[in-house]
Design brief:
This protein is an alpha+beta fold. Helix content is 42%, strand content 21%. It has ten helices and seven strands. It has a five-stranded antiparallel beta sheet, with helices on both faces. A two-stranded antiparallel ribbon has the order 2-3. The longest helix has 20 residues.
């Protein structure tokens, strides 16, 4: 069976979306561009050398191909998940047994809040008018991320899981750690397992929960020192346009 070459950027656990929210309606509605998570250095191309159902001569699921090529946004654009938000938990490494244990221990109830909080943080960061979100939103930024991380979300469902083994050729391997840098210098192919867990949640259901968290975080902001007027305005704009590009 021929195993395809996939071109794309794989995102770990969640996506960061580079967008812009400003005081004008035009700027707020601008479609945000998709960007890799901060610090991620996954190359543009890799080869799939093994996958979960290969021995059974079954194809790689469409959602996996979409995720590898386009990230979470690509999975969400499929007809199957038209009215849902998609999150993908990802374990990455060379130890197959350890990743199996990670997969078995993964719990939507316990791990989903982290994925949501990461996506919320990426959305706020992309909308921030300054390099540091705290400068734009004051203590609200930290309060929102904490409440999003601690929340218990209703309606999150584990749809599927799947693993693939990827081959990076010399010069294409990532440089996330010292071991990878050594592999690049000596020209050694690098093989990595990606264990992917697909989670979905109804859009309206998640949005209503995030709005409640947003309002709770805003109410928890200390009044001393009082947030600056521009910070209050930025928080109000963020709430109004939050789900555009989320």
């Amino acid at each position: 069976m021929k195993i395809p070459i996939i071109a794309g950027i794989v995102l770990a656990c969640s996506l960061a979306f580079a967008g812009c929210v400003s005081g004008s309606r035009t700027a707020a509605l601008r479609a945000p561009a998709q960007a890799p998570q901060a610090g991620e250095k996954r190359p543009q191309s890799f080869q799939i050398i093994d996958y979960q159902t290969r021995a059974e001569e079954k194809d790689i699921p469409e959602w996996v191909n979409r995720y590898l090529a386009e990230g979470v946004r690509g999975v969400e654009e499929s007809a199957e998940f038209e009215d849902k938000y998609i999150f993908v938990g990802k374990g990455e490494g060379v130890n197959f047994k350890a990743l199996r244990q990670w997969e078995a221990a993964f719990s939507p109830a316990q791990d989903f809040p982290r994925l949501v909080a990461s996506r919320i943080e990426a959305r706020i960061t992309s909308a921030s008018q300054n390099a540091i979100p705290d400068d734009t939103y004051g203590p609200f930024f930290e309060a929102l991320i904490k409440k999003a991380s601690d929340a218990r979300y209703q309606g999150a469902l584990k749809e599927s899981d799947f693993w693939v083994q990827l081959l990076f050729s010399p010069g294409e391997a990532g440089t996330e750690n010292e071991e990878n840098e050594v592999s690049e210098r000596i020209g050694v192919n690098r093989e990595v397992y990606d264990f992917l867990i697909l989670i979905s949640i109804d859009k309206n259901q998640l949005e209503s929960q995030i709005i409640a968290i947003f309002d709770a975080a805003r109410e928890s902001i200390p009044t001393i020192p009082k947030p600056r007027r521009d910070q209050t305005a930025a928080i109000n704009r963020l709430r109004q346009y939050f789900f555009i590009g989320f």
